[in-house]
Every structure is written in structure tokens, then in C-alpha cells.
Amino acid sequence: MICPVCLDPDVLMADGVVIEHHYRWRGKLLPCPMSGHEPFTWNERTTRAAVKGRSGGRCEYCGVKADSMHHRINVSQGGRWTPANILHLCGDGVLGCHGYFTQHPDHAKRIGVSLHPSQIPADEPVLTGNGPLWLSDDIAPPWPTGL
């Protein structure tokens, strides 16, 4: 698992908890605040924060102000709250891009806005007017709180 503080992908764990971990900052070796905590995993809160950061608050399809998060694979079909599976869209499921793709599921599937549960979101681009948009879970997670 990746450490949300130092972004080290090789964090040692025991019983689901990060073992004493250190990182370099300004030439000093400091104990990582993640020591003794569960490792980072994507969830709804962290994914929403990361996707808002990735989109800059703009619809990732048309570019206007974004209002909602769209699962490319629905939760009911096994889709998870991860950045590759979520698009920041304008509208609310009735209006805007989110509404359009909800009302036109065949088009959404043709362009990668919606996916079949057997597909892997990071392997399927969203085809936009500006070219393909590749989404990944390999983005910096939001800074941890409460450590």
C-alpha cells in the first residue's frame, strides 16, 4: 500500500498496521505519522477530494463547473470509490453531462463514461471532444487528517 504522507509504495505492515516508518524531509529522517496506523486505501471521502483536485472543479467531460461524481462502474455492479472509476461531471443525474449520460447509457458506454463490470477503469479512456481522458488511481491522495 502507498503511504499518504511520503508516497512510499513499499510501506511495511504487520496485522494491517504500518510498522515504524520514516521519510526524508529537508535532509532529515523523520518518523512518518503513518506509523502505527492502517495504510491508505481509497474510500468515498478520499476519492471525492482527489477527484475534485484532479478536475479543478470543472466537468471532466465538457469543462463547465462540476456538480457531481459519476461512477463509471456502478456501486451496485461492484464499482468502487477510486479515482479511475469516478468522473467529476456537471449536472445531477437529470441535468448537465451527468443527466445526459444517465439518460443515454449506450452512448456513455461507447465513449467510456460508463463501463461494464468486467472492464478495468484505468485501462479504459473516456473519449471527450478534447481527446481521450485516461483516469488512474495512481494520483497523490489527499493529505491525511487526524494523525
Describe this structure in words.
The protein is an alpha+beta fold and 147 residues long. The protein has helices at 44-55, 96-103, 105-110; strands spanning 13-14, 17-18, 22-25, 28-31, 68-71, 86-89, 126-128, 131-133. It has two domains: 9-40, no CATH class; 44-133, no CATH class. The protein has three helices and eight strands; from the N terminus they run ββββαββααββ. The strands form four sheets. The protein has a two-stranded antiparallel ribbon. A two-stranded antiparallel sheet has the order 3-4. Strand 7 (126-128) and strand 8 (131-133) form a beta hairpin. The mean pLDDT is 85.
Short description, anyone?
With 147 residues, the chain is α+β, with helices and mostly antiparallel strands. The protein has 3 helices and 8 strands; from the N terminus they run ββββαββααββ. The chain has a two-stranded antiparallel sheet. A two-stranded antiparallel ribbon has the order 3-4. The chain has a two-stranded antiparallel ribbon with strand order 5-6.
Provide key terms for this protein.
two-stranded antiparallel ribbon; 147 residues; alpha+beta; 18% helix; 2 domains; two-stranded antiparallel sheet
Helical element count? 3
Sheet with most strands? 2 strands, antiparallel
- The amount of helix comes to 10-25%
Quote the average pLDDT: 85
What overall geometry do the principal axes of the alpha carbons give? elongated
Specify the oligomeric state: single chain
- Termini gap: 17 Å
Question: How many strands appear in the DSSP assignment?
Answer: 8
Which runs of at least 5 residues are low in confidence (pLDDT < 50)?
none
Query: Which class of secondary structure composition applies to the elements?
Result: alpha+beta
Strand content: 15-25%
- Listing every helix as H and every strand as E from the N terminus to the C terminus, the arrangement reads EEEEHEEHHEE
Work out the radius of gyration. Answer: 18 Å
The domain tally reads 2
